[in-house]
């Protein structure tokens, strides 16, 4: 099953980052990739580096398991658990691509403080504010179930922490500054990662 986890990460990378960046470039002339921002050691930098590290660990964990250098956790090796993991990961990929589509030309990887994009409040973003991040976490959780080793679990924990830091410490302050009352009304009505949870 570790090989399936590697393939799932490959598909996620191609669709969620590669294809989407190409599509963004075709629509706007920009790939939408803003990368790791902020000075060394800043909140933005820590969140960005943490996210990149979590993705690298997420890919490395099943590869190392496949190579026999890491061993899966026996308690999670039931066929039904790993099959559920595949279904959840595929759903996460689909949800990520769908949410990226709903974001349209406002889609970005990272934040440029000198750039003001439209506040997207339609489609899935009318239900959850950070739908793309939520979908990524669903994908990552499914992948951990497919190749459930300690490194994969650590990578997932790092991804959760990096996304929380990025959303709460970087993106939300940026959006409050750019969109002010419009964003305040949005956060009061729409949940942060799941519907109706994390209202402010």
UniProtKB/TrEMBL annotation:
Q: Determine the domain of life of the protein's source.
A: Bacteria
Q: Which residues form the signal peptide?
A: none
Please state what class of enzyme this protein is: transferase
The cellular location(s) given in this protein's UniProt record come to: Endomembrane system
Keywords noted in UniProt? Membrane, Methyltransferase, Transferase, Transmembrane, Transmembrane helix
Write out the GO biological process terms: methylation
> Is Transferase set as a keyword in this record?
yes
Gene Ontology molecular function: any one: protein C-terminal S-isoprenylcysteine carboxyl O-methyltransferase activity
EC number from the UniProt entry: 2.1.1.100, 2.1.1.334
In the bilayer, the protein is annotated as: Multi-pass membrane protein
- Which sequence ranges are marked TM in the entry? 6-22, 43-64, 76-98, 119-145
UniProt entry tagged with the keyword Methyltransferase: yes
InterPro entries reported in the protein's UniProt record: Phopholipid_MeTrfase
Q: What is this protein called?
A: Isoprenylcysteine carboxylmethyltransferase family protein
